[in-house]
Amino acid sequence: MDDNPVEWPIDGVLDLHSFRPKEVSELLNDYIDACLAKGILDLRIIHGKGTGALRELVHSKLGKHPRVLSYQLDANWGATVVRLRA
């Protein structure tokens, strides 16, 4: 098994399907910081539709983050669009 960290592209789209719920909180904060460092202010967080538990977790974290200006469900409900403060 390779212990080297995997680099994820920082492009404003974060797909959470491959992560466990307990990883989401730290990952979301780190991703927001990385996007801000690159000047990316509009994000799309893909959480899927499912039971809504992951969506609720994401919205809870976004609602508490000081750099999140706004967020809302995307048209398909499987993602949330986020606007960050510059």
Give an overview in words.
The protein is built from 2 helices and 4 strands, in the order βαβαββ. With 86 residues, the protein is α+β, with helices and mostly antiparallel strands. It has one domain (13-84): 2-Layer Sandwich (Ribosomal Protein S8, Chain: A, domain 1). It starts with 12 loop residues before the first strand and ends with a strand.
CATH topology: Ribosomal Protein S8, Chain: A, domain 1
Taken as a percent bin, the fraction of beta residues is 15-25%
Spatial sequence of strands, sheet with the most strands = 1-2-4-3
The total of helices stands at: 2
Instruction: Give the helices and strands as they follow along the chain.
Output: EHEHEE
Question: pLDDT average, as an integer?
Answer: 92
Contiguous runs where pLDDT drops below 50 for at least 5 residues: none
Overall geometry comes to globular
Distance between the termini: 39 Å
| The CATH top-level class label | Alpha Beta
| SS content category | alpha+beta
- Count every beta strand, where a strand is a DSSP E run of 2 or more residues: 4
Q: Sheet bearing the most strands, described?
A: 4 strands, mixed
Tell me the radius of gyration: 13 Å
Number of domains: 1
Corresponding CATH architecture: 2-Layer Sandwich
Percentage of residues assigned to helices: 25-40%
Topology:
Layout: E1 13-15, H1 21-37, E2 42-46, H2 53-64, E3 68-73, E4 79-84
Parallel strand pairs: 1-2
Antiparallel strand pairs: 2-4, 3-4
Short synopsis of the structure:
With 86 residues, the protein is of the alpha+beta class. It is built from two helices and four strands, in the order βαβαββ.
